[in-house]
Design brief:
The chain has 103 residues and is α+β, with helices and mostly antiparallel strands. It has 2 helices and 6 strands. The chain has helices spanning 3-11, 70-78, and strands at 14-16, 27-37, 40-49, 54-59, 84-90, 97-102. It starts with a helix and ends with a strand.
Length: 103
C-alpha cells in the first residue's frame, strides 16, 4: 500500500467520544490500532456508522488495551473476524463507560 493510500486511511473518519455513540446500537468494528497517547496505551477502533456511511474512530478506555492481543487486532484488520461494539452508557457512578463487544 502506498503512502497516499495509508495517509488517506488514517485521516478518514472523525475521532469521536464514546459519549456520542447511540446506546445499544451495534457498530461494526472495521479496524483496530494499538496506540500510545499522553494517557498511556489504548486501542483506537474504527466503527462503521450506517446512517452516515462513514467511519467513526473512538479511543477505547485504557483498561481495554490489555484485553486486545496483537492477533485480535490482526484478525479485525484482515477481516477474518467481525465484531460489533455496543455502548451501554455509563456506570452508575458516571465515571466509566459500559461497553460490549459481540461477534
Amino acid at each position: 500500500m502506498d503512502l497516499v493510500t495509508r495517509f488517506g486511511k488514517v485521516s478518514s473518519g472523525n475521532i469521536a467520544s464514546l459519549e456520542n455513540l447511540v446506546l445499544g446500537k451495534r457498530y461494526p468494528v472495521t479496524r483496530a490500532v494499538r496506540q500510545t497517547t499522553q494517557y498511556g496505551p489504548t486501542i483506537l477502533v474504527s466503527l462503521w456508522d450506517e446512517p452516515t456511511n462513514a467511519n467513526i474512530r473512538v479511543f477505547l478506555p485504557k483498561r481495554f488495551a490489555e484485553v486486545f492481543e496483537d492477533s485480535d487486532i490482526e484478525a479485525i484488520n484482515s477481516g477474518t473476524r467481525h465484531y460489533y461494539l455496543l455502548s451501554q452508557g455509563r456506570t452508575a457512578n458516571g465515571r466509566s463507560f459500559k461497553l460490549a463487544l459481540e461477534e
